[in-house]
Design brief:
Blueprint: E1 2-3, H1 7-17, E2 27-28, H2 31-41, E3 46-48, H3 57-67, E4 73-77, H4 82-91, E5 95-98, H5 103-114
Parallel strand pairs: 1-2, 1-3, 3-4, 4-5
Helix pairs in contact: 2-3
């Protein structure tokens, strides 16, 4: 499941995943939508942007992980600050991918998150 308010990033993710074993099960444009959709979609993995209108991705990830401790959430953001990494790790995110991302980097983080 892809959570990002940028149409461009969603298209880039979809292009990056073409020809791999991964497919996009759902798109969400906000943290609130991700929380609503998670239970219905039950994705193997979630990519979560941090900066979005309304609830940010860290808060959304924290709420999803509280009710679904086995959720695998990978933060995907251009915000590469140490405190952001630390908070993502503290709430239980399984990885962090910097924007712009590359297929090798993305797939490596996905594999680590799913193992």
């Amino acid at each position: 499941m892809v959570v990002d308010d940028s149409r461009l990033v969603r298209v880039q993710l979809e292009d990056t995943l073409k020809g791999t074993d991964y497919e996009v099960a759902a798109y969400c444009r906000s943290g609130e939508e991700a929380i609503e959709q998670y239970a219905a979609v039950k994705p193997d993995l979630v990519t979560m942007d941090i900066i979005m209108q309304g609830m940010d991705g860290l808060d959304a990830a924290e709420i999803i992980l509280k009710s679904n401790p086995d959720a695998r959430i990978v933060m995907v953001s251009s915000l590469a600050y140490d405190d952001t990494f630390e908070r993502a790790k503290a709430i239980g995110a399984k990885g962090f991918v910097d924007k712009p991302f590359h297929q090798e980097q993305l797939l490596k983080v996905f594999e680590q998150a799913l193992s």
